[in-house]
Q: What sequence folds into this?
């Protein structure tokens, strides 16, 4: 079983739609959780950290369920500029590695 | 402030050759990590260095090696290149290791093609 699993998509949604991405991780000792965004042929960029209580940054909401080892990202009011690959990322607090999922591709259409 | 810088941006090599990739972290960051990303996959961890010491190694063969210099810059070396080494090599820097210090910021990467 891969350490971090995501639905690869692609997700094709119209502008203004709400879209949700899900991710599961296998290592129950994982301590830190992130969503990164990667545009085509570019480097990953940190979108947001994910905290146990859930957190929101504008149109983006991230949730963590440690019992189910499940992370989610909700994007409200999708913009064309949200089109990208979203990477679910988990690491252990020892800091040795970021474990990435394969990414979920999102295309927002006019 | 400058972000993470990597050089070269693109590289073409032939099988069996050696390659050295370079990375300069964000000023003030003491940790550098290296990742390999092949098309259609997420980045895979290769090495992490902190204060010039190796702090972690991923599941890569011994042909891959790295080091960190006193100024916290880093090199990734790959010997005896194989076709399967063709990938985007990403360097990430962070303040430290563990917790909030491990939020990693990526450079634009070096795209390596092995022919």
A:
């Amino acid at each position: 079983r891969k350490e971090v699993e995501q639905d690869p998509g692609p997700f094709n949604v119209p502008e203004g739609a709400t879209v949700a991405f899900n991710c599961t991780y296998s290592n129950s000792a994982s301590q830190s959780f992130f969503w990164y965004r990667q545009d085509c042929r570019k480097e990953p960029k940190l979108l947001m950290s994910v905290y146990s209580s859930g957190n929101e940054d504008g149109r983006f909401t991230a949730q963590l369920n440690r019992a189910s080892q499940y992370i989610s990202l909700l994007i409200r009011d999708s913009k064309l500029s949200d089109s990208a690959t979203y990477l679910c990322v988990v690491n252990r607090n020892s800091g040795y590695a970021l474990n990435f999922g394969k990414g979920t591709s999102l295309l927002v259409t006019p | 402030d400058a972000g993470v810088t990597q050089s070269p941006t693109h590289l073409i090599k032939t099988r069996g050759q050696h390659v050295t990739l370079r990375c300069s972290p964000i000023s003030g960051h003491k940790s550098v990590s290296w990742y390999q990303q092949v098309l259609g996959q997420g980045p895979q961890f290769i090495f992490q260095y902190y204060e010039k010491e190796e702090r972690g190694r991923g599941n890569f063969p011994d042909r891959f090696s790295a080091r960190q210099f006193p100024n916290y810059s880093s090199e990734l070396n790959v010997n005896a290149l194989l076709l399967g080494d063709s990938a985007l090599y990403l360097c990430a820097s962070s303040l430290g290791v563990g917790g909030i210090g491990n939020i990693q910021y990526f450079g634009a990467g070096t795209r390596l093609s092995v022919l």
Summary: Chain A touches chain B through 23 residues (CB under 8 Å).
